[in-house]
Design a protein that fits this description.
This protein has helices at 6-16, 21-29, 34-46, 70-74, 89-105, 110-140, and strands spanning 32-33, 58-59. It is mainly α. A two-stranded parallel sheet has the order 1-2. The protein is elongated and about 90 Å long.
């Protein structure tokens, strides 16, 4: 199976853009890797030059044929992030403030107190969750 390293082909195409068309045609007739052949063909097509049908021998790229075996992955360290389903600091603060606001506003109007308690609790949960994620990301850098 033939593999092509696309990153190597793009970098080779950038290198070959400074060469003349005659030098590229000479390179096309010489032995080359599959990525170099793709790069030469790309540059010649961009210049609208005629590409000969016959070319030099093409070998596979060594970097493109790197196959990862399961034995290589067995030694890799695996770390899973655990998330508890219980109530943490952010959830606890949000619920406590929502319940407190609902109890404080209950005497004036019950439905309005429930709505305000739920809305403030949801807004506080979203804001504290964002701050926690920001704090963690700030510590990683």
């Amino acid at each position: 199976m033939h593999y092509e390293n696309k990153k190597a082909a793009r970098s080779a195409a950038r290198r070959f853009e400074s060469e003349t068309t005659e030098a590229l045609l000479a390179r096309w007739a010489a032995p080359m890797t599959r990525s170099e052949a793709t790069a030469v063909e790309r540059v010649l097509r961009a210049r609208q030059a005629t590409i000969p049908a016959e070319h030099g021998p093409i070998s596979d790229d060594e970097a493109a044929t790197n196959v990862i075996r399961i034995e290589d992955l067995a030694d890799m360290p695996v770390q899973k992030e655990t998330q508890n389903a219980g109530m943490g600091f952010v959830e606890g603060i949000s619920v406590a403030v929502g319940v407190l606001l609902t109890v404080m506003l209950w005497r004036s109007q019950a439905w309005l107190a429930l709505f305000y308690g739920f809305a403030v609790s949801l807004a506080l949960y979203a804001g504290l969750g964002y701050l926690r994620r920001f704090w963690k990301e700030m510590g990683r850098e």
